[in-house]
């Protein structure tokens, strides 16, 4: 799905985005998403125990570039503070890139946009701890 260099770029985008927020961003790339990506993201979110962060400020970007499907799911701490269309700009930016075949660029742009969106809700603190791995999750 993604090569080592592409995975490195995405991991670096996650680290860069998290350097401005105490929020935790994870990316899960799947080969195929047959159903609703938001439902699949919800299941993966809980499987990864992303709902266990101290401030409940985890965000999962779940995507299947080959199907042009993507979902962004925020934990309770974020969802309680934002409007329903909060993620729409990030989603559209990613989908536009996927349609052009620019998977890695789309993921990196989405991660950056998510970081921008949550940094006002959860600014980085002096004693911030990276609670979740920044590595990309690849699911077959």
Question: How much helix is in the residues?
Answer: 40-55%
Class derived from helix and strand content: alpha/beta
Mean pLDDT: 93
Strand order of the largest sheet: 3-2-1-4
Return the CATH topology: Diaminopimelate Epimerase, Chain A, domain 1
Note the beta-strand portion.
Answer: 15-25%
Report the top-level CATH class.
Alpha Beta
Spans of 5+ residues with little confidence (pLDDT < 50)?
none
Number of helices in the DSSP assignment = 5
The biggest beta sheet is recorded as: 4 strands, mixed
Distance between the termini: 9 Å
Number of β-strand runs: 4
Give the overall silhouette. Answer: globular
Please state the CA-atom Rg, rounded to the nearest Å. 14 Å
Query: Can you name the CATH architecture?
Result: Roll
Number of domains: 1
Q: Could you state the order of secondary-structure elements as H and E?
A: HEHEEHHHE
Describe this protein with a few key phrases:
140 residues, alpha/beta, Diaminopimelate Epimerase, Chain A, domain 1, 4-stranded mixed β-sheet, 5 helices, globular
Summarize the structure.
The protein has 140 residues and is an alpha/beta fold. It has helices spanning 4-18, 37-47, 76-79, 88-99, 103-119; strands at residues 24-30, 58-64, 69-74, 137-139.
What does this 3D model show about the protein?
The chain is built from five helices and four strands, in the order αβαββαααβ. It is an alpha/beta fold. It has a four-stranded mixed β-sheet with strand order 3-2-1-4, sandwiched between helices. Strand 1, helix 2 and strand 2 form a beta-alpha-beta unit. Helix 1 packs parallel to helix 5 and helix 4 runs antiparallel to helix 5. The longest helix has 17 residues. The protein is globular, with a radius of gyration of 14 Å.
